[in-house]
Design a protein that fits this description.
The protein has eleven helices and nine strands. The chain is an alpha/beta fold. It has a nine-stranded parallel beta sheet with strand order 7-6-5-4-3-2-1-9-8, with helices on one face. Helix 10 packs parallel to helix 11.
């Protein structure tokens, strides 16, 4: 990684002062939610949107269940965010168990609803452990989906990146090559799978640059609210969980408040180190809870903006 004079000065400040003192507040953020299953979960989601909206996120995205299982709820959630807030809304869209015509129709519905940003993904099969198989009349993968969306409308398109390689990838290099195909097909940026050590991201960024990727690569950050659940998710997506993390969460199962403090500290420290390495956009996997993401953003120097960014009354 090439270190600039500005980054060296920033690293010096981080060493000379309390870690989060006088961070410039020049970072931007985005947040990811999942569509609610119940009325109570919808209330929690909307409370989170209202809490995070004043931070002026670049966008908020809403996920899509395996096999398109949450298609209608995803659409309803994204449409409501687009309709009732000033936050740009991004909808996840996958290739799984749908024809090209069906996917194109969903994309057209999003455009008609005022949604201009799609997170284009291959997607996971509906049954855990199964391998993805493209339908003969469907999109073969994310790169083909990106090209298809580009033919429909001038969407802003984000795609996924895997700093530790996708579990189905032949190698880390093959994973980077696949990312380049998605970006060359017309994607705007890449958002990474979550990871827990800054060097993981920096190594991946260097590998991407080495194959000519110049698009923005945004680190995805997962605050750990439940260590056992994160271990399970990490195993499914190929994310390494460092041993020190298990030691830090040991003994906190019955102490949720203490667990939140540890979680916020770890995620904020990760973001601070990424910031010192030149990162200025962070994407938070919120799990529909605002408190941790809001605290981390505050430590990064972000403060509420004008009421223009608030959720509409």
């Amino acid at each position: 990684m090439n270190i600039s004079v500005d980054q060296l000065a920033e690293a010096r400040r981080a060493l000379d002062a309390p870690l989060f003192a006088d961070v410039a507040g020049d970072a931007s953020v985005s947040f990811e939610f999942f569509p609610p299953k119940t009325e109570k979960m919808e209330e929690t989601l909307w409370e989170s949107v209202e809490t995070l909206a004043p931070l002026g996120p670049r966008f908020v995205s809403v996920t899509y269940g395996a096999g398109g299982s949450t298609r209608e709820r995803t659409h309803a959630t994204v449409a409501r965010i687009a309709r009732e807030t000033c936050i740009p809304a991004a909808a996840h869209l996958t290739c799984v168990e749908a024809s090209r015509d069906e996917i194109d129709a969903v994309a057209a519905q999003y455009w008609a609803a005022g949604v201009r940003h799609i997170v284009a993904l291959r997607g996971d099969p509906p049954s855990q452990g199964a391998r993805f198989e493209a339908r003969p009349d469907g999109y073969a993968g994310a790169a083909e989906l990106v090209a298809g969306l580009r033919r429909l409308h001038p969407f802003e398109i984000s795609v996924a990146a895997y700093p530790e390689a996708h579990p189905e990838a032949a190698s880390a290099d093959a994973c980077v090559d696949h990312l380049k195909r998605k970006l060359d097909a017309g994607a705007t940026r890449a958002i990474t799978q979550f990871f827990f050590e800054p060097e993981t991201f920096f190594r991946f960024r260097d590998r991407a640059a080495a194959v000519g990727i110049g698009a923005e690569i945004v680190p995805g950050v997962m605050p750990v609210t439940n260590f056992a659940a994160v271990q399970r998710m990490s195993g499914m997506c190929g994310t390494a969980v460092p041993p020190w993390m298990g030691r830090l969460f040991e003994g906190l199962d019955e102490h949720p408040a203490a667990r939140q403090l540890v979680s916020a500290t770890l995620a904020a420290e990760l973001c601070r180190k990424l910031y010192a390495g030149g990162v200025r956009h962070f994407h938070f996997y919120t799990l529909n809870r605002a408190e941790l993401s809001y605290a981390i953003c505050h430590l990064l120097g972000l403060r509420p903006r004008s009421e223009a960014t608030q959720v509409a009354a």
